[in-house]
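Troubleshooting entry. Yesterday's outputs looked truncated, so today I'm pasting the complete records for two proteins to confirm everything comes through intact. If either block looks cut off, that's the bug. Protein one:
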Amino acid sequence: MLFRHSLTLTCSTLALGLAAAAPSYAQAVDDEIIVTAQRRAQNIQDVPISVTAVSGEFLQQIGAIDITDIQKITPNATIEVARGSNSTLVAFIRGVGQQDPLWGFEPGVGIYVDDIYIARPQGAVLDIFDVERIEVLRGPQGTLYGRNTIGGAIKYVTKGLDMEDPTLKARINVGSYGQFDQIVSGSLPIGETFAIGGAFANYQRDGFGRNLNTGADHYDKDVMAGRVSAEWAPTDALNFRIAADITQDDSNAKHGHRLIPSGDGTIPVTDNEYDTRAGLGDDNSVETKGASFTASWDVNEAFTLKSITAYRESETETPIDFDALPQPDFDVPARYRDDQFSQEIQVLYGSDRLNGVAGLYYLDSEASGEFDLLLESLFGGLTIYQSGVQEKENLSVYADFTYDMTERLSLSLGARYTNDKTVADVTRQLYFGLGSPAFDPSNTAFAGPVQTGYEGLEREDSEFTPRVAVNYKLDEDTNVYASFSQGFKAGGFDPRARADLDPLGISRDGFGPERVDSYELGIKGSTLSDRLTYSAAVFFANYEDQQITVQQGVYDPGTPGPVGTPNTFISSVFNAGESEYKGLEFEGALRLSENFTLSTVVGYIDAEIVDIQSGGVNVANQFVTQNTPEWTTRYGFAYNRELENAGDLTFTGSASYRSEYFLFNAANPGFAPGTNALYPNGAPALDPDGYTVFDLGMVWTSESGTWDLGLFGRNLTDERAKVAAYNFVTPSQLGADGAYSVFYRAPRTVTLSLGYKY
C-alpha cells in the first residue's frame, strides 16, 4: 500500500511537469548529456524526442548484465528474454512490439548495433560489454534511421578506438550459482592514422534450477562473444572502419516451469520455480555473427557523406518441450536460420540554422526455419512437420531536417517512403510416427498428407510516413516540444498457415501492414542551479490494423485421434481494427549534494484494443494488450564518497516496480477448481502479478582509476517474476497433458566484480 501511495505522489509530480533522465545515465561532456538520437551529437535536453540514454559507466555502476536491464530504467518498456530461449529478445515500447519470434514476423522495436539494424530477435539479448552507451527512443522511428520501426528503437553503441594511445580493460565477475565471467577489451594505434581493437567475453553460470528428468542445469549460461575492429583516418576528413563480431550461446535449453501436475496426476508440480521435468533434451545452440564497413567523408564544413555496409547471419538449434514432462508428447525440436545484407547511404548537413540527414536504405534478408511437433499420445505417435522461408527486400528513402527559425524556436520536418516486398514458402505435413526425416533421417515415421504447400507467395507494401516536431526554448534551461509521427510495419505471411482448413485461400494473401499515428507533448530542462534535471512527456497513439497472432489446439477430423479431442494446432494472424495507447512518462534526477543524487523513472500507459470486427460484431472485449504494464517505475540513488589517498566509493540502489500485465493478447487468469475435468484442482494465473525488484551496489575505484572492485546484489527480496508462458490447456488442450508453463526472471544473486583499466 505504501508503494501505491508513492505512485500517487509521483503522478502528482508528473502533473506539475517534472521529469528527466539522470545526468549519470549518459555520456557527459562538460556536464551535458550527449546523444546521437537525431544522427548528430546533441545535448539530450535539446532533442524533441522521448529518449533514455545510459552510459556504459552507469551500467557498470549498477551491475547490469545484459540489454534486458534497460527496461528497469526506461518508462513504458518491456525488454525480456523470450519463452523457451536464452538469447531471443521480446521488446515492447509504449505497447508496440513483437511477441512471437518465429520467422516471418518483423519486430516492432528495432535493435541497432552501431547503426546496423538487427533484423531478427534470435541472439538479440546482447550482453553488456565494450559498450559506450545505449539509447532507447520511444515512438515510431523512420525519418532518422535506415530501417523503420513502428514502436521504437534501441541503439547499442560500442566503444570507439583510441587513435592516440593504447588501451586495455579487463574484468572478472564471480557470484551466485557459480557465475564466472571474463571480459577483456583494448585498442592499439599503429602510426598516427590507424588503430586496431577487439573485445572478448566469456560468460559462465550454473543453472538457477535443474532438469529433474535429465539432471542438467536449467537457466544456466554459457556464452562466448568476440568483436574486432580496425579504423583508418588518412586525413581529418576521411574515416574508414571495419568491424566483425561473433556470439556463441551454448546455454542449455529452457523448458519452463509447469504450474499444474500431469493429466493423470502422477507427476506433481516441482517445488522450485526454476526446475523442470522436460524430456526432449538440453542441447541448445545459438550462433550469431556479422561484419560491417563504415566510410565517412567530411566534404566540407557543412556536408558529410557516409556509407554503412553490413552483413549478418545467425543459426539456432533448440528443443522446446511444451508440456515440460518426460514423455515425447507436445515436444518440438526446432531450427532457425537467417541472414541479412544492408546498405545505407547518408548525407548529413549542418549549418548555423539548418541541420539534418537524408538517406537511402536497402535491406535484403531471409528468415527460415523448421520444426517437428511430436504427439506421442495420438495414434501411437504423430508428427506435424512445419517449415518455411520468408525473404524480405526493403528499399527506403528518408530525410529529417531541423531549422532554427529564431534563437528559441525550431521546426523539424521529416519524411520517409518505404517499400517492402515479401516472398514466402510455407510447408506443413503430417508424419505417422515420432519425428520427420528432416530432423533424423533414421526415423521410421512415414509421410502423411501435405496440409500446406505454399510456394512463392508474394506481397508488396508501400507507405509514406511523415514526422513534424516543434521545439521552443522557454528560457536557457527549459525546452518544450510537440511532435507528430507516423509509424508503419509491413505485412507478411503466417509461417504456420493451414491451407487445407482455408477453402477461401485467405492465408495466401497474408496479413496486412499495421500503422500508428503518434502524438507527443514534452518538456525538458533543469532548475535549482542545475541540481534538478527533468524531462516529461504525454503521448497518444492511434494504432490501426495491429498484427495479432493466435495459436490454439483444435480437433481436426482429418487428423488421427479420439473424436472431439484436440489433435492438431491452428494458427491465425489477423489485423485488429483499432487500438488506442495514451500515457505519461517521467525521468528525473535531483542532486541533493555533490555526493548524493536521487533519480526517478515513471511510466503510465492506458492501452486498449477498441475495435476488432468479426462477422460484423466488435469482439475487442475478448482481447487485451500484451507485455504492457500500466505502471513502470524506478526509484534510485547514487552516493559517492572520496577516501583520503585511497580512491573513492560509490553506492547505488534502486526499487523497480512493474504492475500486473498480460503476456498474450488474451488474458490467462487461471481457472478455478472443478472447472476443468482433467485438472480438478484448478490452476493459477499465467499472467504476472505486479512486483518490485530491489538492487544494491557498491564500487570502489582506486585513486588512479586503474582498479575497481564492485559488489552487487540483484533482486534482493528474491522476487520470482513471470516473464513468459505457454498455454495449451485453456481454452483448448493439445497433447495428453497440454502445456501450462511459465518462465521467470533471475532470482536473488550476488556478484563480485574486479576491473582493471590501462
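Protein two, checking that the full record survives here as well:
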Amino acid sequence: MTSTADRLAHQKQWEEGLGTNQKAVKFRQQDYETIWQKCLKSGRLFEDDCFPAERKSLGYNELGPYSSKTRDIVWKRPTELCSSPKFIDDGATRTDICQGALGDCWLLAAIASLTLDQRILSRVVPPRQSFTEDYSGIFHFQFWQYGEWVDVVIDDRLPTRDGKLLFVHSEEGTEFWSALLEKAYAKVNGCYEALSGGNTIEGFEDFTGGIAEIYTLNKAPPHLFQIIQKALRLGSLLGCSIDVGFILILICHLKINNHEASQFYFCYFQITSAHETEAVTALKLVKGHAYSVTGAEEVKFRGRQEQLVRIRNPWGQVEWTGPWSDGSSEWNYVSTDEKSKLNHVAEDGEFWMSYSDFVHHFSKLEICNLTPDTLMSDDIGHWNHCQFEGMWRVGSTAGGCLNHRATFSSNPQFVVRLEDVDDDPLDGEDGCTFLVGLMQKHGRQQRSLNRDLETIGFAIYKVPDESKGCKNVHLGPDVLLRQRAVAMSSNFINTREVCDRFRLPPGEYAIIPSTFHPHKNASFVLRVFSEKKAETSPLEENIDAEIEEEEVSQSDVDPHFKDIFKQIAGSDMEVSVFELVRILNNIVSHRPDIRTDGFSLETGRLIISLLDKDESAKLGLMEFHLLWNKIQKYLEIFKNYDRDNSGTMSSHEMRGAATEAGFHVNSAVLQAIISRYADAQYAIDFDSFVSCLIKLEMLFKMFKALERDDSGKIELDMQQWMCLAIY
C-alpha cells in the first residue's frame, strides 16, 4: 500500500514539473547542495552510504564479493592518486575517456559524444565542480532515466589497483570527470558490473532524453538518405559502426489476423579481444569503433547527383581512403563552389564517402532524436513529443500480444491524433511521420537478481468512428479483434527499448503496448515523437458510477419473502453481521454453478455499512430486500462473465463485469481491484465479486458526499482520513 502511495505521490509531482533537467529528481532522496554544505561545515569529506566503497558496489558475479577479480582493490580519492587532480582541465575532450577493466565501451562511446557538444555535456555534468574551491569529496551528475531526469550524488572514492584507476580514466591520469561520471552511472544501475555490455544508443538516450532509432544498413529502408538529412536538420545525434561480433537470432512466429510475422529475439555478443576491436579494413575503417555522422549532401558529379555522407572518427588520425576521401580524384569533378561548401569541415578525423559505400561498409546506423528542451537554437527544427508511464500487471493489464486474443485488449492503450501532414514527404505522398518508442524499466538493476528483460512490442490500430475524439474509452475485443493492425513494431524483442518510425494518413490511432507473452509484470515508458504537432493521451475510461437507488416500500415486498425474513431475523426483525454471513454462505453453498470460499465477516460488515440507513449496525426488512435484489443482479452478471462455466470469473473479465454493474474504472483502479480480490490463479469467485462491487459503491458514495462543487477532489484532515480508512 505504501509503495502505491509513493507512486501516486510521485505521479503528482511529475505532473507539476518534477523530472525535467532543470528540476531533476533527487536520486535516493540525496540533495547535493544540502550534503555539500553539511560537509563544508563539518570539515569532513563525504562518504556515500547509498553506494559505499565496498565490493558490493563493484558487482555481483565476475566482480562479485567473492570473485578473485575484486581482490587487492583499494578505493581511493583523486587527491590520493595525484598531487593536483582536476575535474575538467581545459575542456572535456576525447582523451579524457580511456577504457579500463570493464566491458562498457558502449557507454564510453556515448560519453565521448558529450565532448562534441558543450550544451549537452553541461546538462549531464553540472558546472562549478572541482577539487580546489570548496572541495568536500562530493560530486553530482544528471541522467535521463525512464522518462525523468535524476540528480545523482556520489563521493569521489574510486576503485584502484596498484595505485591506478581500475575503470575509466583519462590519458594523462590527472583528469577525473569521466571516472566520476561512470561511478554515478554505476550507482544508478546498481553496481559497476551492471554496465558490462550494451548499445551506445542507450547511453545517448540517458544523456539527452532523446529517442533512438537503429537501422541495419544491409537492410536499409528506402529514403534512408533523406531520413539522415532530416535527422541532421532536427539536431539529432547520429552514430554508425561496423560490427565485429555476431548475432544469435532466435525466431518465434507471431500470428496476426491469420498472417505470420517472424519476430526476432537477439543477443549481441561483442568480440572483445584487442586484435578484433582494433581491426582496420583495407580502406582504413575501424571495426567495432563508434563513428559520428555529421552531414549528408548531394553534389553534381559527372552529370548526375551523387549522395554523400560525412563521417567523423572521434579518435582522429585514421580516415577512410576510398572514393570521396580527402584528396581523392572524385573531388576533381565537383565545382569549386560545391567543393568549398562541403570541404570547410575537412579536419583531421572527418571525411566524406558516398552513401552507397556507407551502407556497404558500415553495419549499423543509430539516430538519437532529441527533445525540444535539448535544442536551444531557433535554426534547428524540433520534434514534438509526449511520454507516458504505464505498467503491465498479471491478472489485469498484462494481456500479451495478439496471439492471446482472450486477454490482448486488457493491455494499456494510448491514442495519437494525427492532423497535419509532413512538409516534405520523402516519397511525395502525404502522410504524418511519427516515432513510437516503448521502453521497459530497470533492466540493468535486475541483472543481479538474475532477471531477464521481457520481450516487448506494440501494435497500432485505427480508432473506430464511434470512439473518435474520445479519451474516456477503453477499446475492447469487439473492436480490436475485428480489425487488423495498421502498423506494428518491427520486432517483439527482449531489449530495453523497441522504437520504430511510421507514416500514416491523418486520423486517430490506438497504440497497444504489450509483452509477447501474457501474465508478465513490468513497468514501461511509452514515447511518441511526431514531425508535426500531434495530440497523444492514454485511452482510459473516466472513473464514474451509475448507481440506481432502488426505492422499496413495505407493500413492494413479497409476503413469502417477509415470512422467510421473520424466520431468519428472529424477534428483533433485524439481521446482524454474523447472521448475514451465515445466511449468505448457506445460500451459495447450495449452488453448484458458482465456486466460493464463503463470505467473510469483512464482506458482511461492508454490506451492512452500505445499506444500514438507521445506523443500527443491522439490516431491517427493507434493507435486506435491497441487498437481495443486488445479489440477484450481481449473480446474473457474474454468470455472464464466467465464460468457461468454471464457477469463477477470470480477472481479465473484471473490467467488463464492473462496467455492466454500473462502475467505470481505469487501469490503475483495476490493478488495485485485482490485487485485492483475485486468488493465486487470478480468478475471482462470487463472494469476492460481490465484496468488490459493494466496496466500489461505498467508495463512490463516500467520495460524492465529501466532494465540493463537482471539483473531482476531496479534502480531509488526518482524523477524517483515519476514520474513513479504518471504516
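Both blocks look complete. Sanity check on protein two: The mean pLDDT is 87.
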